[in-house]
Amino acid sequence: MFKKFKNNEDKSSQVDTLDLHNIPKHIAIIMDGNGRWAKQRRMPRIKGHYQGMQTIKTITRAANDLNVKYLTLYAFSTENWSRPEEEVNYIMGLPVNFLNTFLPELIEKNVKVETIGFTEQLPEKTICAIEEAKRKTAHNTGLTLIFAINYGGRAEIISGMKALIHDLKSSDEMDIDSLDEATFQKYLMTANYPDPELLIRTSGEQRISNFLIWQLSYSEFIFNPKMWPDFDKNELVACIKIYQSRQRRFGGL
Ligand code: FPP
C-alpha cells in the first residue's frame, strides 16, 4: 500500500468538518500573487516564485490526503513570455528544482505527473525534467498532478480544432453534422480528465485569464484572498467547504 502524506497541518485544519463523500474529483488552481507576496516583503519577484513552488508541494500533499483525483495548476501561460527575460528564465528553472527535490516523494506517494500546454516550446532543461517525472510516475494510480505550462485556453481550442478538421478531411467515417461536444472534447489537451468541479484563484483577482475556458463551463469559482505563497492546506479545506455549501444545477432547477 502507498502511504498517504502526513503533516502537522492536519491538527489545526477543518478537515473533520468536510463531507468526505463530496470532495471535488478535479480541482484547478490559478496560482496568483507570487510577485505581490515578494513585493510586500521588499524581495525580488523571483523569491515569490520560489516560495510559490514550495506551496505547490504543500498543496499537492494536501490534495492527495483529501483524495482529490486530479489537481491542475496554472504554472505558465502562453501570455507569460512577455515578462522580463530574467523572470521567465527563473520560472523555467523551477520545474527542475521542484522535481529534483520532490520527485522521490511523488513516486513514493503514487502521484502521477502530467502536463497540458505547448511544452515542446519550453527550454530543453525544463522539458527533460518534466519528461523524466512523467516517465517515472506513468504507472502511478493516485492523484494526477497536472501542470499547465505554456498553456492558453484559446490556443488549445484552435489547436484542437485544427486536428479535428484534419481528421474530418481524411476520414470517411466522420462528418461535420455529427460533431458534438463529446467529440470535440477529445481534441483538447484535457481529453483524459473530467472537467474541474472547482476552480480556485488566489490573490483576490477575479478573472480566469485564458485558463481552461472550455472545461470550466460549469465549475464553481472560488476567489481566495491569500497570495499563492501563503495558501495552505487550511485554505484549501476552507475552499472545499465553500464548494460543498454550493448547489450545482448545471442549468437545471
Ligand atoms: C503568478 O504570480 C505566478 C506565475 C505566473 C508563475 C507560477 C509558477 C510557479 C509557482 C512555478 C512553477 C513550478 C513548477 C513546478 C511547474 P504573479 O507573478 O502573476 O504574481 P503577481 O500577480 O502578484 O505579480
Automatic annotation (TrEMBL):
Active site per database record: 32, 80 (proton acceptor)
Q: State which Enzyme Commission number(s) the record gives.
A: 2.5.1.-
Record has Iron-sulfur as a keyword: no
Q: Which residues form the signal peptide?
A: none
The entry marks the following residues as binding substrate, namely 33-37, 45, 49, 77-79, 81, 83, 201, 207-209
Q: Which domain of life is it from?
A: Bacteria
The record's InterPro entries line, in alphabetical order, gives:
UPP_synth-like, UPP_synth-like_CS, UPP_synth-like_sf
For this UniProt record, the keywords arranged alphabetically read as follows: Magnesium, Metal-binding, Transferase
**Keyword GTP-binding listed:** no
What Pfam families would the database entry show?
Prenyltransf (PF01255)
Which is one GO molecular function term here? Answer: transferase activity
How the cofactor is bound: the record states: Binds 2 magnesium ions per subunit.
Positions with a binding annotation for Mg(2+): 32, 220
Tell me the cofactors it needs: Mg(2+)
Q: How does it assemble?
A: Homodimer.
What's the stated role of this polypeptide?
Catalyzes the condensation of isopentenyl diphosphate (IPP) with allylic pyrophosphates generating different type of terpenoids.
The family note in this entry says: Belongs to the UPP synthase family.
Query: HAMAP family from the entry?
Result: ISPT (MF_01139)
Q: What name goes with this protein?
A: Isoprenyl transferase
Species per Swiss-Prot/TrEMBL record = Staphylococcus ratti
